[in-house]
Amino acid sequence: MKRLLISAVIALSLVSCKSDEPNPELEALKLEKEAIAREAAAKDSTINSFIESLNEIEDNLAQVKQKQGAIKSTATEGAELQGSAKDRISEDINFINELLEENKSKLASLQGKLKKSNMKVAELQKMIERMTAQLAEKDAEISTLKEQLATMNIQITELSTAVSGLQSESSAKTQVIEQKTNQINTAYYAVGTYKELRDNKVLNKEGGFLGLGKKKSLKGDFNEDYFTRVDISKIKSIPVNGKDAKIITNHPSSSYKLELDGKKMVKSLTITNSEVFWRSSKYLVITIDK
């Protein structure tokens, strides 16, 4: 093409030297020169456009590779993918999909332009073919990565289910332990005159001979509602506030003491050894005179 332009210029120079009159051959050469220049400019513009698009595709592929690395790094940081990590991976996958679709669209457009231009540029065709192959390879890699992430999510779900089961089992056991502990630490007491306790079906008199020597004792089917419930791990003192206090139920005398308010008035019962005091009976009954 350059040789043709040089020949045209030489011819124009020779013709112009001979005469200043218009020459049809000269005009034809000028038009041919301009057409050749326009064709060369158009071809250069098309090639530059192709190269620019191919560079954009390469940049996109570089970003895809970077995002792949970020996803793999996040996925291998720990066994669980939760919260922000899952959101970040989801965003990166969407970004990769967008870039790959954009690249496919650009390559398809380049293929069409190359056919319409009727240019036989082997290097451009090779570059487009190479980019197409790279896109197909990336598609396969992303598909594999998605499968791995899906598998991880399944494993994480199974792990979460197992952990949830263990937590439920642990919670149930804790509840049972708490119930048992509450039962062990629960005791009851009732304080009142014999008449009050008898009338409320707590005490009765039994034994003796001909009505003599009968002992006050806890009824076999005593009324539990009349008792006050306490936690033996916390309570250390039980209010009495009566004269001539007597403990009817069985509690070792070494495990408590009666606190007096004056000579006969008993203010309270202080438990000095809780374990020993409640060992024989979890029910305490105290009779008083008012």
Task: Write a structural description.
This protein is α+β, with helices and mostly antiparallel strands and 290 residues long. The protein has 2 domains: 2-177; 193-289, no CATH class. It is 61% helix and 17% strand. It has 6 helices and 8 strands. α2 packs antiparallel against α3 and α2 (24-75) runs parallel beside α4. It is rod-shaped and about 160 Å long.
- Whole-number tally of structural domains: 2
- What does the average pLDDT come to? 76
Q: From the helix content, strand content and strand pairing, which structural class follows?
A: alpha+beta
Neighbour order of strands in the largest sheet = 4-1-8-5-7-6
* Total helical segments: 6
Helix and strand pattern: HHHHEHEEEEEEHE
Largest sheet: 6 strands, mixed
Radius of gyration: 51 Å
Point out poorly predicted stretches.
1-6, 8-12, 14-19, 208-213
Proportion in β-strands: 15-25%
> What's the count of strands?
8
Distance between the termini: 133 Å
Helix content: 55-70%
Shape: rod-shaped
